[in-house]
Design brief:
This protein is mainly alpha-helical and about 90 residues long. Helices cover about 65% and strands about 0% of the residues.
């Protein structure tokens, strides 16, 4: 007959063990931010927030440029219309 390999040991899955694993994982303190650029000790939430802020800043700058250009075009059209009205 064939010799079957042994089954691996089954991990204890009682509710108390599962609760304990979740409690230990949630109580661990965050990793300290290193003085170097070592990504193993960085705060990813902070990095993502900074990246989002930079992207929003650049998007706002673009929309401000569009608004500034639109206002300049409107002023030029108003000046042209005013000159045409005064000539009559």
């Amino acid at each position: 007959m064939l010799d079957l390999p042994e089954f691996p040991a089954i991990k204890d899955a009682t509710t108390s063990t599962l609760r304990l694993e979740n409690a230990v994982a949630s109580r661990l303190p965050s990793m300290p931010g290193g003085a170097t650029n070592d990504l193993g000790f960085t705060n990813y939430r902070q990095l993502e927030a900074e990246q989002l802020a930079n992207e929003m800043r650049s998007a706002y700058a673009i929309s401000r440029q569009y608004d500034r250009r639109s206002r300049a075009i409107a002023r030029a059209k108003n000046r042209r219309a005013q000159r045409a009205a005064e000539r009559r």
